[in-house]
Amino acid sequence: MAGPVLEVDGVRKSYGRRRAVDDMSFDIRAGELFGFVGNNGAGKTTTMRIVLGVLTPDAGEVRWRGRPVGFDARRQFGYMPEERGLYPRMKVGEHLRYLGELHGLSSAAARSAAGRWIERLGLAHHASEEVQNLSLGNQQRVQLAAALVHGPRVLVLDEPFSGLDPVAVDVMSDVLAERAADGVPVMLSSHQLSLVERLCDRVGIVGGGRLIACGTYRELSENAGRRLLVDAPEADGNWAAGLAGVEVVSREGTRTRLRLAKGADDQRVLHAALATGPVTAFVSENPPLTELYRDLVTGTDDRTGGGER
Ligand SMILES: Nc1ncnc2c1ncn2[C@@H]1O[C@H](COP(=O)(O)OP(=O)(O)OP(=O)(O)O)[C@@H](O)[C@H]1O
């Protein structure tokens, strides 16, 4: 994968006295699917709007290929806003052609691109319908087509998967993976962490307006410390207590899940388990992104649970 093309550097934004985004920095590489996750109110939409130039930051800047993003660069961005922004009375085909032309495509090119995306996103039966008469999921497909119709060089998508049926999620995932394979950097926010884990090359986790972790799933997983599942049928509930660098995450019957701090010795864990009797399972586990996320976000976001600061 190539180097960074889209850089968010030290971005800060307040609404009145409320700090929504604070010293936010990350970059996205060409051809990379970058998942942007965080609790409600963590600052994702505000950051994405700043990337798009819909909002101006109080400090910091966004750069595209090393230069501050200006009007010309932004015309090459494709954006799917959280508050979907389609004209309800326009017909789907007409709407997409209009948006293509608005972004500088010729009338013929806009017609052809609109037709292509209508077909690709499974909207062929709805091309002549008014947007407002479509189901919400289909409106969302149109919204994705609207972000793609002008052949953008960057995609910024705010919760593109919310409310989609599983088939539409697959179509959307395939399309985004294809765009990324074509070298387009794709930034997407989502609360569907299993999907983000599966789809995205890297993940940025936002808490309280700041980026609290960023990396591949594997990197995030390694930084969080190793997990072990140990099944010691004759052990009592306290067998792992007091082992240095070892935390008991959960116990179900005879199975204990442990988290090991960096550098903690798993062989000492094995010895301690064997000292209780037979050990029928001793397995390294990769926690799902959801669990890593919970560990990272807990305690870092004083707006956790949708509250505001
Ligand atoms: N127009 C606004 N005026 C005042 N405060 C705002 C405005 N927009 C957002 N905020 C506040 O800024 C903070 C960040 O909001 P933002 O919408 O960026 O979060 P988010 O991570 O996208 O949340 P969600 O997952 O719920 O969409 C919140 O405290 C929110 O209430």
UniProtKB/TrEMBL annotation:
Residue ranges occupied by any ABC transporter domain in the UniProt entry: 6-233
Keywords: Antibiotic resistance, ATP-binding, Nucleotide-binding, Transport
Any one GO molecular-function label of the UniProt entry: ATP binding
Annotated membrane topology: Peripheral membrane protein
Database matches in SMART domains: AAA (SM00382)
Predominant place of localization: membrane
One Pfam family cited in the UniProt record for this chain: ABC_tran
Entry's localization field: Cell membrane
PANTHER family hit by this protein: ABC TRANSPORTER ATP-BINDING PROTEIN, ABC TRANSPORTER ATP-BINDING PROTEIN NATA
Family: Belongs to the ABC transporter superfamily.
Protein name: ATP-binding cassette domain-containing protein
